[in-house]
Specification:
The protein is α+β, with helices and mostly antiparallel strands. The protein is built from 7 helices and 11 strands. The strands form 2 sheets. A 6-stranded mixed sheet has the order 8-5-1-2-3-11, with no helix packed on it. A 5-stranded mixed sheet has the order 4-10-9-6-7. The radius of gyration is 31 Å and the shape is elongated. The structure holds copper (II) ion (CU).
Length: 343
């Protein structure tokens, strides 16, 4: 179907070109020559067309902003997200102003300075003052935007993580697992060689830090309100990207590497449902890297609880120490044997 449509478009263009050739030839044969009046009439139509195009185009832009504006993300639910949004809004304002100003000037000038009778083009090769103005102003504006952006990014990375809760977000084709560090706030060791059906994270249960670790394979993760959450990201197979749109956070998950990002949730799921006037509202964690055929299914519900509710929820999750038998790393031979057995 697509090929047929493409073919039809190509053939249509070819027919149009041929038709124009025929018109040209027939005017030549009939001895007709285009006069200046004809040209000016054509110019007037083209100039009118430019104005119509500008008004319709800019009008549709405004209409789209108005109609689809409600589909934008709600207020930021994380602390750093608020200042990030402010910065982004300043960017949008400047981009919007420049877009409308340049488009209006472009189309209006093409309309106003079209060729008419007795009008002669004025040769105006350069103006140093003008060139300095349109170089210096964008340089200053862009420098301010970049510097404030870098300062904001520095603040985000330097957030106080002293009392942060350590949580691991583990991505694989095509789901997420989260692991909470428990009372000691230390994530126990893991190794990919220990991965089994019962131990999808390859947790090393001989590590004492593992004793109180808790993990969840359900399609839901909980985080407490008002606590800095320090996420450690890991991938099992390919590169994934953990995207928390409502918290204005995103970080890549790279196999064989630990990557980190932290944020502090400031609005519970319940409160956000009231703010968005949507009783079914839920925060979400999405994969934002095309990681394979079922990439689109890599979504996890994120619930922001009050600290008390969060504690209750954690208590109900799987404990790392409940993992049936984890051969220790010293018995590597065993693991290989097991793998062969399963094969
Ligand atoms: Cu993915």
């Amino acid at each position: 179907m697509t090929i047929l449509i493409l073919l039809a478009v190509v053939l249509g263009v070819m027919v149009l070109v041929r038709l124009m050739n025929i018109v040209q030839l027939s005017t030549q044969v009939s001895g007709y020559e285009e006069t200046e009046d004809d040209q000016i009439r054509e110019n007037n139509w083209a100039a009118l067309g430019l104005m119509v195009f500008m008004i319709v185009g800019l009008g549709l832009t405004v209409l789209m902003i108005y109609v689809y504006g409600s589909h934008l993300l709600p207020v930021s639910a994380s602390e750093h997200g608020v200042s990030l949004d402010k910065l982004l809004n300043v960017n949008w304002f400047i981009i919007g102003f420049v877009f409308f100003a340049t488009q209006i000037v472009l189309f209006y000038f093409a309309h106003k300075y079209r060729h008419t009778k007795g009008k002669k083009a004025y040769f105006y090769p350069m103006n140093h003052k003008l060139e300095i103005i349109w170089t210096v102003i964008p340089t200053i504006v862009l420098s301010i935007l970049i510097i404030t952006g870098l300062r904001e990014w520095h603040k985000i990375l330097m957030a106080d993580k002293k009392d942060a809760i350590n949580v691991q977000v583990y991505g694989y084709q095509f789901a997420w697992i989260t692991r909470y560090s428990g009372n000691d706030n230390v994530l126990g060791k893991s190794n990919y060689k220990l991965i089994t059906d019962d131990n999808p994270l390859g947790l090393d249960t001989s590590d004492p830090a593992m004793k109180d670790d808790v993990y969840t394979t359900g399609n839901e993760m909980h985080i407490p309100l008002g606590k800095e959450i320090n996420f450690q990201f890991n991938a099992r197979d390919v590169i994934h990207s953990a995207y928390f749109p409502h918290f204005r956070a995103q970080m890549n998950l790279v196999p064989g590497m630990n990557t980190f990002f932290s944020f502090k949730p400031t609005i519970t799921t319940e409160e956000m449902r009231k703010i968005t006037k949507n009783e079914k509202f839920d925060y979400i964690l999405l994969c934002n890297k095309i990681c394979g055929v079922a990439h689109y299914t890599m979504a996890m519900k994120v619930v922001v609880d009050t600290p008390e509710d969060f504690k209750k929820w954690v208590r109900k999750q799987k404990k790392a120490k409940e993992i049936p038998t984890t051969p220790s790393m010293a018995e590597e031979g065993n693991i290989n044997k097991d793998v062969t057995a399963t094969l």
